[in-house]
Amino acid sequence: MSETRRDATDSAVGNRWLILVAGVLVQLAIGAVYAWSVFSKALQSDAAFGWSKSQATVPFEVAIGMIFIGSYLGGRIQDRRGPRSVALTGGVIYSIGVVLASFATTDSFWLLVLGYGVLGGFGLGMVYIVPIAMLQKWFPDKPGLITGIAVAGFGFGAVITAPVGQRLIDNTPDLPTKAFLPLGIGYLVAIVIGASLFKNPPADYRPPGFAAPPHALAGAGRADRPAASRAGGPAADTDVDPLSGTRNFTANEALSTPQWYLLTAILTLSVVAGISLISVAAGSASDITGLSSAGAATLVGVLGLFNGAGRVLWGWLSDRIGKMPAFMGILAIQGVCLLLIPHASSVGVFALLAALVYTCYGGAFGTMPSTAGRFFGVKNAGAIYGLMLIGWSIGGVVGPLLISKLIGEDKSYSLGFTVIGIIALVAIAVPLVTKKPAPERAAEDAAV
């Protein structure tokens, strides 16, 4: 290794843990979206706006639906321009949207949808994809664990926002949207501080002590040679990651494989299962167990801990047991718990079952980024995983809409959660049949 390479690597190592902390801080700010059930419950109160459950769910659905657009654009720009400017731009848009939502009243439903839903969701998507793609490049030695930690901040966002938001709502119970003003300002400060530290590692970066596997070195050697000398004539481009040996697909190439659609389907179905509970968590806790509004808000905050912890746990576990076995476990646990939740006999039982659902819901987001990197390489991770987040948007719209319709004004929780639970259990078949793309024949020949 040259002296220049060694110096670059050593200085980068000193920064990568700080960049990880910055990524978690940013994710904490945008993860506040998971505390929406606290605001939804307040908006339905007769003392406030008196909206129906379905109407109070719309801003959240729109926000989740806009995430895909923001993440797709943000991911593509980041792959070309770097992470800092994308995160800062998205953070400003997200914060402006939340602040704008604070001016919504009972007669300006559209303003809440525009601010929190359209602007907030779009900005959230732009920011969300950045640390995920960036940190896989900084930590090729532990991709599942690190992306799990990064997105854990997103899950933990509700831990802070749920109780703080409830306290702000209690200050003006007749106008709960006023709580969004101080929250939006706080989000902006956190995102600017964190995103200011974002940067990609040097092109030749390799963590100390991390040795590329033999097949990766063979692939890298092949990629460094001219196409004609590799195969005795013209050859297809094989951009191979020198650290993992995985071919670096472009976004268009990834979209041409069935694996991209299967992974997106797994994410979509896991989101449908988990977010169905998340979107009605506070109201479900109160209606099923008799918990007070304050108690339900506290429970939502505590459950956010499991959403965050699940991202780390399943990200770490998937590196050891395999990606597809992890997804089968995630879907199976969610399905069983959703079937049992309507029959919870106490607050403790409800909290336990909900905690397992939150853990597995978060686990899908902790596991999928490294899965996409393992399938398609990390070079274009921003664009490829950004496109996959359409599954989050689809699931984020379908799940809350479906569960609110099934529960209805009659509060038919047994019907609602039973249907969603069955969907999760049937979905286990998808990871069961999903395999990593086979290496190109030419790459196999060169490695021999």
Automatic annotation (TrEMBL):
Disordered: region residues: 218-244
UniProt xrefs under PROSITE patterns: MFS
InterPro entries referenced in this protein's UniProt entry, alphabetically: MFS, MFS_dom, MFS_Riboflavin_Transporter, MFS_trans_sf
Low complexity bias: start-end ranges: 228-237
Record domain Major facilitator superfamily (MFS) profile: where: 15-439
Residue ranges that the Swiss-Prot or TrEMBL entry lists as coiled coil: none
Keywords tagged on the record: Membrane, Transmembrane, Transmembrane helix, Transport
Membrane topology: Multi-pass membrane protein
Compartment annotation: Cell membrane
Assigned GO CC terms: plasma membrane
Parts of the chain that traverse the membrane: 12-36, 56-74, 86-104, 110-133, 145-164, 179-198, 260-282, 294-314, 326-344, 350-370, 382-403, 415-433
Gene3D superfamilies registered for this protein in UniProt: MFS general substrate transporter like domains (1.20.1250.20)
Molecular function GO terms recorded: transmembrane transporter activity
Protein name, per record: MFS transporter
